[in-house]
Amino acid sequence: MNTVIHKKVEQAQKGENPYVITKVKSGWVVIGEVQPTKGYCLLLPDPVVENLNSLTTEQRNQYTSDMIMIGDALTELTDCWRINYEMLGNVEPALHAHVIPRYITEDEDKRKASVFCAYDWTQSRKTDLNEDNEFIQKMKAWFDKNYQ
Asked: pTM for this one?
């Protein structure tokens, strides 16, 4: 299969994905290419599989643990109110997890909705690797310190 997720992971493996924050046991932590909310990240599995059910129990545990670690980092490094975790796979039929900081400062109607319904992603701020470098470096440092 040749999804965007496959391409992004292949780029990460070659050191050519500029959005990579760090490598974890189950895959790659990347900053979202758009930022509907500040700090939006994804976990891309390596190797790429179709869905969470394609993994063994041990692999599932590692993947979800790594996903939650991204949430831990975001909770510590941003002023978010909570973290949303979403694994959809409807548009890109390959496993990937969206780790989405949510903020109490969001409009109430947006805050109560899925980020995919609340925000127009085509109008969301595009990630600027220069502007977002401080955040990326803080995330890298957090994982260097806390990830086993």
From this structure: 0.96
Outline where 1-148 has alpha helix (H): 4-13, 57-77, 108-111, 115-118, 133-146
Q: What is the mean pLDDT of residues 5-15?
A: 98
Whole-number Cα distances in Å, 114 to 49, 87, 93: 24, 12, 19
Tokens linked to 98: 């969206």
Average pLDDT over residues 103-108: 96
Decide: 87 and 52 in contact? Cβ < 8 Å. yes
Could you tell me which of 99, 74, 66 has the C-alpha nearest to residue 84? 99
Domain span including residue 88: 4-133
Query: Is position 102 within any domain?
Result: yes
Question: Which CATH number covers residue 102?
Answer: 3.30.428.10
Domain count, the chain: 1
- CA–CA distance, 1 with 128 (Å, rounded to integer): 30
